[in-house]
Here is the input.
Amino acid sequence: METLEVRLPDCTYNIWLGEGILSLAGDLLLKAGLGRTLALVTNPAVAALYAAPLEASLQAAGFAVRRVTIADGEQYKTLATVDDLYSRFLAAGLERGSAVVALGGGVVGDTAGFAAATYMRGIPFVQVPTTLLAQVDSSVGGKVAVDHARAKNLVGAFHQPRAVIIDTAVLRTLLPQHLRCGLAEIVKHGVLGSPALFEHLERHGAEPMDRVVREALAVKIRVVQQDPEERGVRAILNLGHTTGHAVEAVTSYRVPHGDGVAIGMVAATHMALALGLCAPDVLPRLLALLGRFGLPTSVEADPNAIYEAMFADKKKKEGRLRFILPQAIGSVIISDQVPEEVVRLALARITTQDISKEVPI
Ligand SMILES: NC(=O)c1ccc[n+]([C@@H]2O[C@H](COP(=O)([O-])OP(=O)(O)OC[C@H]3O[C@@H](n4cnc5c(N)ncnc54)[C@H](O)[C@@H]3O)[C@@H](O)[C@H]2O)c1
Here is the structure.
């Protein structure tokens, strides 16, 4: 097992990482100095696989654990679910000294984290992420949120976890599409901050998984430590997301998030190349690596529709689109100044038209 530390101005917490460490959770959380009453928030699918061993470990260490399940799926990442959680926390006797343990992917982590951030003005919470995306990204950094009917992650807070327990053995039960989503974020972390991680992925793929998770996490930790509340540099973690979200939206979410991020990173690289900002090896290496992981690099869609959809995204600043542009593998810049024709050129490069739908001349 390895211990990584997240050091922030107001708090420091540990990330414990290893294969099969779920059974050590009780002893690890004793070290985190939590109160004795815990609400274990999870969903039915994850609970069936991992709640029992986690509960057994927590109970053996002396914690009183009350399991609380929420429905599975992004559509339940809402204030209504949070409201239900408050009721269940009250019924479980959760007080300010108690804690919430989130066992699941990013949806459980974000929802349970937001409930913990707001219940009784904030109680401690612990992340036990079970998807690759949650392990390398959403469980660390303290961003917690739920969706609003009109915007994703609109209602949220910064609430850092007291500890993060990452057992890479749980990734074996993930469906391939959920694994791919995490791989897209890992490639993103390589492009924005770690040439060594990117090279490792090129040479060895995503193996060994615990090493790849550790290296990807190291990038996230470094960025979060520099800018805990996203006032500046933390925005680089949105590499590929402005275009990615727009691609997801115009395809009515048939393109999943990880695929959107992959396509968005390719678009950002085309923009950086057009602006003369990007080393020539970035695009071919990125295309090859995404292809190796079965991630798409283009989408069958209307580039004009993608362009319009970008303006619905809340990451634009005062009407300007913001892009994270690769300069080299491991280095990016933030720009609010990409000219419209450069954006449109990049969108033309990442879109294909369905010729079967074209009217023959
Ligand atoms: N807070 C942040 O900083 C941050 C960052 C990135 C993404 N997010 C959020 O994360 C969410 C996406 O998270 P996700 O990709 O983990 O999706 P998810 O939480 O929906 O999990 C995907 C599916 O995998 C299942 N699952 C989870 N662990 C499993 C396991 N070990 N074995 C088998 N099945 C398992 C879940 O039940 C679910 O059906 C989005 O809501 C996004 O907004 C948050």
Observations:
- The chain is about 45% helix and 20% strand.
- The longest strand covers residues 151-158.
- The two ends are 65 Å apart (CA to CA).
